[in-house]
Amino acid sequence: MNTEKQDIKPLVSIVTGTYNSSKFIGDCVKSINDQTYKNIEHIIIDGNSKDNTVSIIEHMPNRVSKLISEKDDGIYDAMNKGLKLADGEILGILNSDDFYNSEEVIQNVVEAFEDPNIDCVYGDLVYVEQLNTDKVVRNWVTGPYKENAFRKGWHPAHPSFFVRNSVYKKLGYFNLNFGLAADFELMLRFLEGNKIKGKYIPSPMVRMRLGGATNKSLKNILQGNKECVEAFKANDLKVSAAYPVYRLLPKLKQFLK
Q: What's the pLDDT score for residue 217?
């Protein structure tokens, strides 16, 4: 009996928010379905899409355990709904335009969580062209966390950020007051504000198509930087007035790697 219990693998819940995502949702669903790790539930929260997003999901091989299509208050609201519905011990988020870089990503994540002291796991990410996803445009090499690293422009690539369900339940979910930087605020709150223990996997975990909301216009880039500064203040963390510059420099370097 004890041996059987030890052989039980933890459930991994992956949350995807969708809205009129028919163009690329198939790649996202397929990359989760193709994972070598078997104990996965895929939770999809759709914002009442007007295209055939839901039909595509329903008619292809998948590991979707929960699919809800209803009006929501944006992507972070959808993510919160999915996270709160998750039964897994380990929770991850994969955007509808993104897909995992290999079939072993979740297996590697689960192995990292075998250390009971680890609260979160994160890795690297590559930005690719929308249609030619073999064409890498930018490499996001996260590197391991060091104290106060956020203030120097460091933060994990959010689609590579996996967290124990118990941490979410203790420290909370996405703060909907942040329209563009709620993912940054959450990672800042967890790692810098509450000192959860993370583990870095030095490998590309996700392929992200160019064209996300945060970077699609200069206005959004400026607003995103403003919200990141506000995130420090919301968590009673000091930040330099030069922070937007510190935040920009690592991203410029990513194009050169």
A: 55
Predicted pLDDT of residue 212: 58
pLDDT at 247: 74
Helix (H), strand (E), coil (C) string for the chain: CHHHHHHCCCCEEEEEEECCCCCCHHHHHHHHHCCCCCCEEEEEEECCCCCCHHHHHHCCCCCEEEEEECCCCCHHHHHHHHHHHCCCCEEEECCCCCEECCCCHHHHHHHHCCCCCCCEEEEEEEEECCCCCCCEEEEECCCCCCCCHHHHCCCCCHHHCEEEHHHHHHHCCCCCCCCCCHHHHHHHHHHHHCCCCEEEEEEEEEEEECCCHHHCCHHHHHHHHHHHHHHHHHCCCCCCCCHHHHHHHHHHHHCCC
Better-scored residue on pLDDT, 103 or 252: 103
